[in-house]
Amino acid sequence: MFKKILVPLDGSPPATAAAKHGIQIAAKFDAEVIFFHVCPNLNFMNEFSIHAAIDYTQLKEEFTLQGEKILANALLKYADTDLTIHKKLVWGYPSEEIIREAKEGGYDLIVTGSRGLSAIKGYLMGSVSNRVTKHAPCPVLVVR
Ligand SMILES: Nc1ncnc2c1ncn2[C@@H]1O[C@H](COP(=O)(O)OP(=O)(O)OP(=O)(O)O)[C@@H](O)[C@H]1O
Ligand SMILES: [Mg+2]
Predict the structure, then answer these.
(1) Which ligand minimizes its atom distance to the CA of 88?
(2) What is the pLDDT of residues 69-119, one digit of tens each?
(3) Using a 6 Å cutoff on CB, does residue 81 contact ligand 1?
């Protein structure tokens, strides 16, 4: 039933919990898991950074390093399983890229955290998990 599972990771505790659930479901269904991270779109900075004291290239490198670290940590955690686990890092708006990946990659399930790294904790779900549950082409499991 579930053969390909997308787990979007931002390094937050709910996303880490989502990874655990994604892995457990994958083990039951002998599914493939893809840990997915979206680095924020910085294209607007190209123009802006000319006028500000911001090193665009350095910032981009830092986001890439941070994203790769999140994915590598998750892979390492489940390295001793027999499951097929891949990682993927892209640039863009997180919800858009997660939905695009789910559509284009033919996934059967998305396992996402309810909240992420945002400091505002008033809502049950963050904007990314909210948009993903609304627009995903497949079932979504939201993990708290
Ligand atoms: N950049 C990202 N890359 C991959 N997955 C992400 C990213 N951002 C969020 N997610 C996924 O979405 C889940 C919910 O995070 P979300 O960003 O919606 O909540 P938040 O950070 O608390 O609130 P908001 O970002 O709306 O202020 C995370 O647990 C994670 O699974
Ligand atoms: Mg967030």
Answers:
(1) 1
(2) 999 999 999 999 999 999 999 999 999 999 999 999 999 999 999 999 997
(3) no
